[in-house]
Write a structure and sequence with these properties.
alpha+beta, single chain
Length: 143
């Protein structure tokens, strides 16, 4: 049995997808920092967590540990992160961000915020406030 999608839901979905694509492609400036968008996202997670196990990072990114390991290899070569064996579990690897990594992550964050600010600048302050409230509401929704 075929269900027809509500035209408004379809319109919102397509708009969200297009906006996301524009923003992510605009964040190609992360490449100027020597990172892909997923690598930059991973670096930001590491910066936020301070010390993370590879398995935890993989779970948060919803990918396999092997995919995270490949990204970490590249980031370690660039001097952005360091890895060490977990002193409590020698099978586990703990990842930390280096000073260079902190600098690159901060620059990427600044660039991302500027890009997003450009996209959101078409909204009036009250529209921007409502937009933020709606997005927060969707984000908090339990499924």
């Amino acid at each position: 049995m075929s269900q027809q999608m509500d035209p408004l839901v379809e319109r919102i979905g397509l708009s969200m997808w297009r906006v996301q694509r524009k923003i992510i492609s605009g964040m190609a400036t992360q490449k100027e920092l020597g990172l892909t968008f997923p690598q930059y996202s991973l670096l930001s997670m590491i910066a936020k967590e301070k010390r993370s196990r590879v398995i935890q990072l993989a779970e948060k990114m919803e990918v396999k540990s092997s995919a995270v390991t490949v990204m970490l290899d590249r980031m370690e070569i660039l001097g952005l992160i360091s890895r060490e064996t977990d002193e409590n579990d020698r099978r586990a690897v703990v990842v930390t961000i280096t000073d260079k990594g902190k600098s690159v992550q901060a620059e990427g964050k600044l660039r991302s915020e500027m890009l997003l600010g450009e996209y959101l600048s078409i909204l009036e302050p009250d529209e921007l406030q409502r937009f933020a409230e709606y997005f927060d509401k969707i984000d908090r929704q339990e499924r």
